[in-house]
Specification:
The protein is an alpha/beta fold. Helices cover about 35% and strands about 20% of the residues. Helix 3 runs parallel beside helix 4. It is globular, with a radius of gyration of 17 Å.
Length: about 150
């Protein structure tokens, strides 16, 4: 299978939006399609019952996770439509919205045979914060089996 796609994962941050321009340039120069990926994290407690006295949830009542996921998906679609409005009409783009861990989902998508490379934005973190909040871009660079371009 040919490497047809440049994978562009986005969290809609400023650095991620800046990476989109690089991904578009590469896609146009290499005559490849762009696969835009947004990953929605599953809400904490999504797998816990909403019954307050159920033994598995320690008495914690969880807000309606299904409603929360629907709201996040609608927000993602709204942001994607805003991004698409600024793109060249001739650029082929595939949109994908997944749920789960961002790093895991990006790596799974990057492992597909049709992905030529990943173009990802990188947040600037203060020293030592990477221990508390692992950098998704750094994890993708370290674990992906295809080229990764990190854009600051």
């Amino acid at each position: 299978m040919d490497k047809q796609y440049i994978l562009y994962p986005t969290d809609f941050s400023e650095s991620s939006t800046h990476a989109l321009q690089q991904a578009l340039e590469l896609a146009q120069k290499s005559h490849q399609k762009l696969r835009l990926l947004h990953v929605i994290s599953r809400p904490y407690g999504d797998d816990i019952t909403t019954e307050p006295h159920h033994e598995d949830n320690f008495g914690i009542v969880v807000a309606n996770a299904t409603e929360q996921q629907a709201h996040l998906a609608a927000y993602a679609k709204e942001r994607i439509n805003a991004l698409l409005a600024n793109l060249p009409p001739d650029q082929e783009i595939e949109i994908q919205i997944d749920q789960g861990n961002a790093t895991s989902q990006i790596l799974a998508e990057a492992a597909r045979e049709d992905v030529a490379m990943v173009v990802i934005g990188c947040h600037h973190h203060a020293p030592f914060t990477h221990w508390l909040h692992p950098n998704v871009a750094a994890q993708v660079v370290n674990k992906a089996h295809c080229p990764v371009l990190v854009v600051r």
